[in-house]
Amino acid sequence: MIEAYLFTSSLKEFLRFRRLIPWLILGFGGMGLALIWPNLNPNTTPVDQYSIVTSTLVFHVLALAAAIFTTAIISQEVEQRTIVYILTRPVPRWKLLFMRYLAASTVVALVGAFGAVLVSVGVYKGGFLSNELLVKDIIAMAVGAFSYCALFLLVSLLINRAMIVCLLFAFGWETIVPNMPGEMYRLSVYSHVMAIAEHPTSTGGGAGSVASGLLNTNAISAGTAYATMFVMSAILLAISAVWFTTFEYVPREDAE
Amino acid sequence: MIQLERCSRWYGQVIGLNDVTCTIGPGLTALLGMNGAGKSTMMRLITGQIRPTTGKIEVFGMEPFSNSQVYRRLGYCPEIDNFYEHMTGRQFVYHLARLAEFTGPDASKRTEEVLEMVGMSDRAGRKIAGYSKGMRQRIKLAQAMLHNPEIVLLDEPLNGLDPVGRHEYIQLLHQLAEQGKIILVSSHILYEVEQMTSALLLLHRGRLLATGDLMVIRSLIDKHPHQIRIETSEPRKAASLLAGLPNVVSLSFAPGGEALQIEVRDPNAFYDSLTEISLKEGLALHGLSSPDNNLESVFKYLVEA
What we know:
The complex is a heterodimer of chains A (256) and B (305). Chain A has 256 residues and is mainly alpha-helical. Chain A contains 12 helices and no strands. Chain A has helices spanning 2-14, 17-40, 46-71, 75-79, 83-87, 93-124, 133-158, 162-176, 189-197, 206-212, 222-246, 252-255. Chain B has helices at residues 39-46, 68-71, 89-99, 104-117, 133-145, 163-178, 190-196, 214-220, 235-242, 267-281, 295-304, and strands spanning 2-11, 14-24, 27-32, 54-59, 74-77, 151-155, 182-187, 199-204, 207-213, 226-232, 248-253, 259-264, 285-289. In chain B, a hairpin with a 5-residue loop joins strand 11 (248-253) and strand 12 (259-264).
């Protein structure tokens, strides 16, 4: 089964230890932040503590991880000029794209889940599994991973230097738009992912609230968020598949 | 069979290939041209990495762009020196074998076979990052030969190979050609091409200047008379006997005086006459050569034209 091989080989490639080092550091950084949080704000409850650290750090890391792993699907192959080896094999391009997307999304979801578990350990110590938000967070991260990856995949196919655009989206758009007035927050993936996570509403304002997208009330229901993310991902993937099958992917210097 | 029909490819305002029509059949054919002549563009068109801007290209009667049916029958060794550097040679070839639709055990078996074929079995366990240029070329050839393709395209394959490696590589190409495969090798080094084959496709600035057998191409270049060097102990006698022949354009004595340099229009007719005259007049000939009956001269004449 070529599909299974494409998936497992991509997964193996994305899970190489050297690739994972930054995410391990960030995960343990989240745990460290959770550990010292009571010192910074002694009045927070463990639920708030967990919620703030995950929504400020882990959910944003999810977008960052998606940007990095997704650009490795095709863009990196084009830049490293190794794309020629895979495009001259009898594998339909859409299949290649889709299986690599699945592998990248899985790794991004694992990175997010790993971060959430470590933050939970930082907050609840040995009883981290008693954290009621953890399971929903892991599900939300999986949905977020597949959605972000679908979005960034299309971006990486459409433009050169996609990483810059993806990072601007991850840290600019996804931080600003959830806090914008009116219904604008609905235009961010982050708001939908947080709707699935269903974190308790927190108040207070400040920089932490901005990063957590808490300046607005998120009125998206979990059901709507699931449906929106599913439809968005499906459409983006379909466009990506058509685009990748139709257009030429030769390294840039060769095309000039 | 590879067919290009009035095929052009533009990169923005730069033309990579200009109105090329040709057919490439079984055997070893060299794609010759200077850097920037359009060799790699032609390779990319045939391998379906890019599409022609105008014209048509067919491989086994099918359009090659993103065509799995073509890729099942085509092996490509690109010019690039880029690999998945963290992999070993064996892992790299195995990975591409799996992408060529081999099952796990078959891919392992075939990987070992092609590594053996290119002489890399003993070194394939090392990381590609540590490979020499020659080893990289061999690994590239191995991945191109994995699925025993009917068409093998090799873009500048001899770059970086040592003399023994070159010899082995060329021998291997001849063996593949003898099996009836279509082998297209691009090169800008005339000496290499001359060692490989006399079947040529000659590109210059995107245009196909000539196609066919080297000797036939040379014979068709009328503008430049053929040069023939005759070594003899009686150059003056030879000059007086040959000067009157109808095909002779010019005649001069080579430095040292033991040879004549003659320019003729129809070399075959001249050789017939020379044989007749030397027998009839008892003219002793010690050597006969044709200094411009080689690829370098043909290339020079065509490019200058």
